[in-house]
Amino acid sequence: MAGRVKIVRSESEPMKNRFIWLAALGHLFTDLNQGAVPALLPFFISEYHLSYASAAGLVAALSIASTVIQPLFGFYADRLSKPWLIPAGVGMAGCGVAFCTLLPDYWFAIAMIVLSGIGIAAFHPEGARLVHNHAGEKKATAMSIFAVGGQMGIALGPIMATVAVSAWGLRGTAFLAIPFVLMAAFLAFQLTGTGGAPGAAKAAAGSQAGEKAKDLWGPFAIVTGVVIIRSIIFYGLNTFIPLYWINIYQQSATVAATALSIMFGAGVVGTLWGGRLADKYGHRRAVLVGYSALIPLLILFVQVKDVMVATALLVPIGIVLLSTYSPLVVMGQRFLPNQVGLASGITLGVAISIGGIVAPLLGHVADGFGLPAALTVLAFLTVPAVLLTLMLPRPHASEEKK
Asked: Is 54:106 a contact under the CB 8 Å cutoff?
């Protein structure tokens, strides 16, 4: 059984809502681009006569640039504390996607999308640090608000891209640079003079707890493992639910897409709900309860034969799965109190991207043994997530419900 440790805390002040909402707004604008690029692929294929592999390369370029280098920006942010990375990231992310259609050249599009990915990578660690530094005692609640901003951006991105192309043509996406530049300028103005020096949290923790904050790399590695499992489950459900509805339940593509939207909508509720519960009852406890509840839900989901019951089950599955989002990010930050940006870059970037990498392997399971087998694998993946969570050190008794 995991022992108890004293987790040094730095949040003596109440949550500063203005900074939390600014970070969430920036997150929304930044992640609009992650939703927009896949929606642009059919237009690229039609306009530039790309193969499916070449079109997929655009998404891969965005994913690699936006996730793999996030820890580097986090490492940099921890040491130099540059709040300007937030507006700069928003501007780069938006302008990269906006300008990727200006020239009828595939490699120019790749270059612009990589620029967008770098902007996304620059934004996330510094944005998460801003939330961490101004969240007060409600770190998971604040992180859930930040997370929902990104989720809304990904959901609205396809609509933004489609409307822009429909109104102005493929090269008309350049007009999208205007709102992103304006938002970047607004964030730069609002964040001018923002604190958040890299040693601020450490100094505050030391003065309150009378001890030096220590980075706990072992527990952080466990948190990263749990995040990876959640990412695999999420990407797996995202990939196979539409196919499951079409091939197993014999539903239309529209109904299949609606099922996915139901799970995503429930996930937004779960993200906010999970943050509040974690702050009230404890982050480790919230993650443990979430994954424990997910085991029977996913097993039952695979066994269900009625499409209406399966659709209803998507609601608790979405809520429970995403309820672990903010507690895991916050625990990662707390286990690396001197490396908050790096912790954010790994838990928000690299660990999540692994889920997308593993999805094709689950596809091989589905090809060889059927879609129910692939979803059964996802159900049993929750077991190691529970076991890993049990390995995490318990907080000090006085912090158990904080």
From this structure: yes
